ABC transporter ATP-binding protein (Rheinheimera muenzenbergensis), 303 residues
Amino acid sequence: MSSLIRCDGLTKQFGSKTALQQVSFELQQGDIAALIGPNGAGKTTLFSILCGYLPATGGQAQLLGHQAGSSALFGRIGALPQDAQFDPGFSIGEQLQFYGRLQGLSSKAAVAETSRVLTLVGLAAEAGHKAAALSHGMRKRAAIAQAFIGQPELVLLDEPTAGLDPANALAIRQLISQLSGQVSFLISSHNIFELEQLCNKVLYLDKGLLQASETAAVQSDAPHYLTLQLEQESSDSLLQALKLLPGLISVQQPQKKQLVLRVQRDLADSFDISLLQCLAANGWRYRSLTQGQTLEQKLFDIA
Ligand SMILES: Nc1ncnc2c1ncn2[C@@H]1O[C@H](COP(=O)(O)OP(=O)(O)OP(=O)(O)O)[C@@H](O)[C@H]1O
């Protein structure tokens, strides 16, 4: 298997501030890797160096066998920067076409590619809209669409689900899952749980240091966990309704407003959808729905 990303002793200083300290790791083609860490850990700095937006202060970063920022990587890598913005003066479609032209596509190919990537993220009908006319979730999906223009081999997504509601976040995870096999991914997030199902590698960064680099090795038959934080206390009728959902193995109630659901892994995606539909249909409001319970515990023995 050939190398997807290889970093050796990567260091980044901003004046006296060390954002990355001797970071070394290697990912292989086909990997779907999670880059996890708290605020200020250095995730965006690492992304920016890999994308060629920022030079490293020391060490090496290679993607697909080339130095980060090399012209040989042009068109082979797609990226969603954390603060991706659209120009308010042009429609989403016009901007994606322009981006396609910058990648060297003909006008006709740029139009076709824009239509392909907007369809991928479920926004084909919104091509003529300006960013201001789209919801936050739609803007995020449009920015993700941009990262897929030109069919890159590697896509870097910095916080692709930040600020999205559970249904939109699920749609993004499903898209990534659907494209895995054709595209390799490096995805950053604060939340290890939401990437648990998607990723086969985990890089854990804290204070600029790579604390752990692990193979996730989630077994295909291991149960999937969901933590549901309710706005009100749970009730018997809610528990009864949840028990009817296909795929549920068991429910625990660690706190009055919190439920931990154990779900069959092969039904996890359809379970998420039926759970959200069940909550909406019964008017049960929830504060958050987070994925998983196991991976961080495996890495750090928190349990
Ligand atoms: N341009 C800059 N100038 C000075 N310091 C910076 C700069 N960019 C980042 N830093 C510092 O480097 C460290 C790492 O920041 P970075 O944005 O990479 O973290 P992060 O893991 O992406 O955080 P978050 O999850 O909050 O986005 C932080 O201490 C930050 O203050």
In short: Confidence is low (pLDDT under 50) at residues 294-303. The chain has two domains: 3-215, 224-300. Residues 3-215 form a domain with the Rossmann fold fold (CATH 3.40.50.300).
